[in-house]
Fold:
Amino acid sequence: MSTRLSTAVLLAAVLLAVPACSSGTDDDAGGKPGGGATPSTGAPGSKVPDISEGIPEEPTGVERAALLAALKAVDPALAADADRAVANARQQCATITGGGNAVAAAQSRFGSAGHQVTEEQAKAVNEVLKRTLCTS
Structure:
């Protein structure tokens, strides 16, 4: 198992370079604050809760393939259903950045009745996500 874990961590480290290869520029923000986001229209000093806070955009192309490969390196069953794996990973980022019990959440989120995720695997998944998808 340590070989898989080492492979996953190594793959995640390599994937850190993927976001740096983005073709986007600072001009994409269109001069708007917050990278083009529209400011809240709520009352001054109030914060309108954002249900997507902590959930990154859905990865596509190379980033999606790299995420799935990193999850497969931890355990191929984690990425057997690619769409489910990506959705779980995005939700897991909210738990990781929100300060919840990320290990238990990963075990529950990525496990199923037919496949239990170990604590070691859950930790590896969280490390992969911290270095790849949950970086923004």
Observations:
- The longest helix spans residues 82-98.
- Helices lie at 2-15, 17-20, 61-74, 82-98, 102-110, 119-131.
- The two ends are 29 Å apart (CA to CA).
- Confidence is low (pLDDT under 50) at residues 8-51.
